[in-house]
Amino acid sequence: MSDRETIAVYDARAQDYADRFGTDAPGGALRRFMDLLPEGGRVLDLGCGPGHSAAHLAQAGFVVDATDASAGMARLAAAQPGVSARQARFEDLTATALYDGIWANFALLHAPRDQMDGHLAAIATALRLRGVLHIGMKTGDGTARDPIGRRYTYYTPDDLRSRLDRAGFDIVGEETGSDTGLAGTNDPWIILRARLRG
């Protein structure tokens, strides 16, 4: 993510976001992701926000790296026990066969559409054989800014599934729903869990 306005919103609202969306226990989607990982595996929280998911992963015994384009978010994540966090954009992912899983939970929706296939290719390269990707995205069409200025790129479920297939992933789990986020709007979403083909 390189959209300055979006990053500025997260920098300004980092603590507010952390206070609103922090949890004491991992949610169902995170538990289902963890169930697909090898015990003690290495995981990247890509677009980690304040690091709540990264902290739950670390508490569960995984080795956790976390990155976020927002310096404010990365600072909060780095304060989580057991989490190695740093400021980095999606395009800074250059690892090869390093991770057993990558958790990209409602983060890649901030990337421009013409960069998505490249990001998915980099994720595939960063995963070990049969590694697992969790990706959460808002569904719809086009690109727009929300009421507080964040830029979103929306995908139909079929488009997202096709992109994952082209990147070398098999879908192994899916959920859909809608929730109210930081901007106060209720938006539909899809979560896909996908395993890199061996």
UniProtKB/TrEMBL annotation:
InterPro entries, alphabetized: SAM-dependent_MTases_sf (IPR029063)
PANTHER family: TRANS-ACONITATE 2-METHYLTRANSFERASE, TRANS-ACONITATE 2-METHYLTRANSFERASE-RELATED
Name listed for the protein in its UniProt record: Uncharacterized protein
Organism: Pseudaestuariivita atlantica
Record lineage: Bacteria, Pseudomonadati, Pseudomonadota, Alphaproteobacteria, Rhodobacterales
